[in-house]
Amino acid sequence: MAVTDTSLKRVLVTGGAGYIGSHVIYALQKTRRYKVICLDNYHNSQPKALTRLEQIATDALPEGATAADKASAIIDVHKCDLTQPEQIRAVFKKYGKGGIWGVIHVAAYKAVGESTEIPVTYYHNNVSATIFLLQVMDDFDCTRFVYSSSATVYGTPPKVPIPESTRLQADSPYGKSKVMAETIIDDLTHGTPLLYALITIVDEKEYSPTHEMASYLLAILQMAVGRVKDPVLKVFGNDYPTPDGTCVRDYLHVLDLAEGHLLALDALAPESKLFDNCPTEARYKAYNLGRGQGSSVLQIVEAMRKATGFDYKTEIVGRRRGDVPDLTADPTLAEKELGFKAKQDLETACRDLWNWQTKKKKKKKEQWTP
């Protein structure tokens, strides 16, 4: 690296090549204050996403950029399976004790429906990976941890919009794996006062085009570009206690989500006063990230119809196991303490997602054109 060890804070992002993780890295690079280390096993992502991120960050550098600015655009990439602790340890060993300033843990299996079919796989991957990561962090004096969780931890919440004080009672193995991880982190901060941990909670499964078989948006998006042959979009249930009977979710633009993770990381700086009001010595807080405004599945279909121009046909089928009626977040606490504010509305999110998909399709076509 072309800068001294203290020029940039090293931040490790797990799952950094994925849709959410890559946007978190993008937000970190924009600050030019962090040196990003990416860990990914490419289970549901491609390493070329990281090359693209480096190019975007490099192109955005100002004239006369410093050596530190240039270094912040380059990602230290490590192919790593988080369920193999020796692989995690090898990465931390490269940077030495205290060499990694903080960790943003995004990597996980995230499909609610799939988790009901292979629950043990989800528990093994999502829970054990978090445990091994925290153990290695402790061994190498890394004390700042941001965990990307899910609104599924709340199950069917008794109050909507959902405040952070809501009990954790997930309905799906995926959600339960997140509850387990949050519980472990909470316990660890009580037993290790030097560990500072923030939990960012969001209904992430609905806006990411990378979560196979888990997202209505994925099916909607791929149907519009001809990758889904079924001419009818299946809607899982219309008898929920919601305005139109279909599930309601707080659809958050991925750039707003990434900004929320950056704010959480910044809040772990030594000068932060964020934990001054904690009732115990444990430095642990959770924040719901969202717009505070839910949208139903049918509303999403209509928004995507406007964004794509595609005439979607829908069919109501039975409920999907693990789904809950409404997961609209109450972002008040995140707005007050982190300064978080969702800037993008649903229409913008759908438009940007469509633009991303069409550009991706165009690039693939150009790549294979003789």
From TrEMBL:
Q: What does this protein do?
A: Mutarotase converts alpha-aldose to the beta-anomer. It is active on D-glucose, L-arabinose, D-xylose, D-galactose, maltose and lactose.
Q: Which family does it belong to?
A: In the C-terminal section; belongs to the aldose epimerase family.
Which Pfam families does this chain map to? GDP_Man_Dehyd
User: What is this protein's name?
Assistant: NAD(P)-binding domain-containing protein
Question: What's the superkingdom here?
Answer: Eukaryota
Q: Which InterPro entries match?
A: NAD(P)-bd_dom, NAD(P)-bd_dom_sf, UDP_G4E
Q: Which reaction does it catalyse?
A: UDP-alpha-D-glucose = UDP-alpha-D-galactose
Keywords annotated in UniProt: Isomerase, NAD
Q: Which GO terms describe its biological process?
A: galactose metabolic process
Species lineage: Eukaryota, Fungi, Dikarya, Basidiomycota, Agaricomycotina
User: What does UniProt give as GO cellular component?
Assistant: cytosol
Q: What cofactor does this chain's UniProt record say it requires?
A: NAD(+)
Q: Which GO terms describe its molecular function?
A: UDP-glucose 4-epimerase activity
Pathway(s) where this gene product acts: Carbohydrate metabolism; hexose metabolism; Carbohydrate metabolism; galactose metabolism
Q: Which organism is it from?
A: Hericium alpestre
Keyword Isomerase listed? The answer is yes
